Amino acid sequence: MNLILLGGPGAGKGTQAKLIVSKYNIPQISTGDMLREAVAKQTELGKKAKEYMDRGELVPDEVVIGIVKERLAQPDCEKGFILDGFPRTLKQAEALDKILEELGKKIDAVINIAVPEDEIVKRIVNRRTCKKCGAVYHLIYNPPKEPGKCDKCGGELYQRDDDKEETVKERIRVYKAQTEPLIDYYSKKGLVYNVDGTKSIEGVFEEIKKILDKFA
C-alpha cells in the first residue's frame, strides 16, 4: 500500500503518518525529518536546506528528489510506504511518477488532511520545543507544567524559527501556491480522499482507517 499524505503545514500529517505506520507496518518517508537530520548533522545539504527552511521557503527540488529516490529503493519500502511532505509541487509529482515507474511501483491513495488557515496558524505559532531533549509542547493544547520549562528534563523551551507567525504565514502562502495544485493533479487520477483535519487525532485516524482498509 503506497500512500501520499497531503495537508497544509500543521495539519497533523506527521502525527497521522506515525499512527498509520504502527497500524499497517509500512515505513513513513518524511522529507522534513530527513532534511532536519541533515541540518542537525550540518552536512553540506543540511546547511543549504537550513537557509531555505529558515525563510519559510521550499528546499530546491533536485535536493529533495535525490533523497526520496534513494529512500524508495530501500528494501523496507517493498510492501509499501507513506510519503509525508513530498511531493510538494507539480514538478515533484511528475518526478515521483518517473521514480515509481522505474521502481515498478504506483500510488494507491492520496490522503488530503484539510484544516482551515486560522486553525493552522494557531496550531503552529503556539508550539514550543525543548532545547535539551527536543520534546514538543503546545501552549494551548499541551502546555508544560511550568511556563518555559520542559516537564521531562527541565530544559528551556523555545519557539523554532519556522514556527514564528510571519514564517508560518509565508509557509501557508507557499503551500497554497505550490502544493494545493497537487490535489487537482491527483484528483484527475482518481486517487484523492479528503479527511476533516479539525477532528481529534483519533477522529482523523478513524476516517483514514476507513479509507486504507480498502487497500490493506
Order of helices and strands: EHEHHHEHEHEEEHHEH
Based on CA atoms alone, the radius of gyration comes out at 17 Å
Number of helices: 9
CATH architecture of the domain at 2-116 and 179-212: 3-Layer(aba) Sandwich
Please give the share of residues in helix. 40-55%
CATH superfamily of the domain at 2-116 and 179-212: P-loop containing nucleotide triphosphate hydrolases
User: What proportion of the residues form beta strands (DSSP E)?
Assistant: 5-15%
CATH fold-level topology of the domain at 2-116 and 179-212: Rossmann fold
- How are strands sequenced across the largest beta sheet? 2-3-1-4-8
**What's the N-to-C terminus distance?**
7 Å
Look at the helices and sheets and give the structural class.
alpha/beta
pLDDT below 50 for ≥5 consecutive residues: which ranges? none
Could you please describe the fold and organization of this structure?
The chain is built from nine helices and eight strands. With 216 residues, it is an alpha/beta fold. The protein has a domain at 2-116 and 179-212: P-loop containing nucleotide triphosphate hydrolases (Rossmann fold, 3-Layer(aba) Sandwich). The strands form two sheets. Strands 2-3-1-4-8 form a five-stranded parallel β-sheet, with helices on both faces. A three-stranded antiparallel β-sheet has the order 6-5-7. A hairpin with a 5-residue loop joins strand 5 and strand 6 (136-138). Helix 1 packs across helix 9 and helix 6 (117-125) crosses helix 7 (165-179).
